Amino acid sequence: MRAAWYEKLGNAQDVLTVGEVDIPEVDPGEVRVKVHASGVNPSDVKQRSGWGGLKMRHPRVIPHNDGSGVIEAVGEGVSPERVGERVWIYEATLSRPFGTAAEYVVVPSENAVFLPNNTEFAEGACLGVPAMTAHYSVFSDGAVTGQTILVTGGAGAVGNYAIQLAKWGGAKVITTVSSSQKAEIAGAVGADYVINYKTEDVADRIKEITGKKGVDRVVEVDFASNLETNLAVLKRNGVIATYASDSNPQPQIPFYSLLYKNITVHYVLVYVMPKASHQAAAEDVTTCLKAGVLHHVIAQRFPLSEIAAAHEAVESGQAIGNVVVIREEGAGSREQGAGSRE
Where are the beta strands (DSSP E) in 123-253? Predict the structure, then answer.
């Protein structure tokens, strides 16, 4: 089968190779998926580059955790009725070396989630890391009905899904962006208020919006950079759910400022979320897909032969939305498998 891989860490153009490898075998409890699209996430490119001291975990790695396609074989213990089912995939490389940047991928059956026919394969490849991170960030402290939630970076992959899931859950959503283009993207998926932090004072604007009451929860893209603002706008007993702190990986914690408001801080890493949280996210995301209420922002699509350019697009930080590597012969389609279900 055709696949991309690397055998050492480094720059994308230097270490990524595209060629032929063996089709993976299916073990008990697993499914083999013919991949139509593969999602490229920041964690994928950080692993490949050796960011922050990350090491090679296997002699050869086919990258990417997220993807989508059609199940074409099942292992012992998996219903044969799943053959032909359209699916979206998460955590393909979490405990194994071979991910979705290939013609075929093998994953545990539960990591291949039914993909409704109203969703393109390219869109399905966007769901794993971003949508599951967003779901846990929004709902890890329970229902959000009637609450006011601040989503920072609302045009980003996680932030965009967080806006939509919070609205689906019954919350009022305020989001921050850095440009008019990003404001349009965040507003298009339902944010009630969009604040350009480059031109507006975020804390003052939130106090104006909420009548000085503040927000109940924050879904945070940069913990260190936005902590001061979050402390100013969070209500007592509020929550910060943060999944990154790239501006400062070792931020100082203002203990008493957090204590005096009894603020809870959740550190959200999708790869170590409880199994029940993965299952809840998969169920709710699929429910939203079926209902047509979850929309996707795909910044760029690349063929597998240009996977290095796809990695560079993610690393540049210029891509607004998700970056997807597609199967050359029409992976953006809504092609149905023989056993696809409405």
Answer: 148-152, 172-177, 193-196, 215-220, 234-242
d(CA 63, CA 38) in angstroms, rounded, equals 9
pLDDT in tens, 289-311: 999 999 999 999 999 999 999 99
Residue 340 pLDDT grade (very low, low, confident, very high; cuts 50, 70, 90):
very low
**Rounded to 5, what percent of the chain is helix, strand, coil?**
35, 25, 40
Backbone torsion region of residue 243, taken as left when φ is above 0, otherwise alpha when ψ lies between -120 and 50, otherwise beta: alpha
pTM: 0.92
Is residue 241 within 8 A of residue 273, CB to CB? The reply is: no
CA 26-31-34 angle, 5° bins: 100
| Residue of 326, 289, 298, 280 whose CA lies nearest to 116 | 289
**What is the DSSP pairing of strand 298-303 with strand 215-220?**
unpaired
Domains, the chain: 2-126+296-326 (3.90.180.10), 130-271 (3.40.50.720)
| Separation CA 179–CA 54 (nearest Å) | 33
DSSP H/E element including 162: helix 157-168
Residue with tokens 């806006």: 163
- What is the reported pLDDT for 329? 56
Q: What is the C-alpha to C-alpha distance for residues 148 and 145, in angstroms, rounded to an integer? A: 9
Return the structure tokens found at 119.
Answer: 């969703």
Q: Residues for the chain: how many in total?
A: 342
Q: How far is CA 23 from CA 1, 306, 310, in A?
A: 6, 21, 24
Asked if 155 contacts 297 with a C-beta cutoff of 8 angstroms, the reply is yes
Under 8 Å between Cβ of 74 and 109: yes
**3-state secondary structure at position 279:** helix
By percentage, how much of the chain surpasses pLDDT 70?
96
Query: From the centroid of its chain, how far is CA 133?
Result: 6
Helix (H, G, I), strand (E, B) or coil at 86: strand
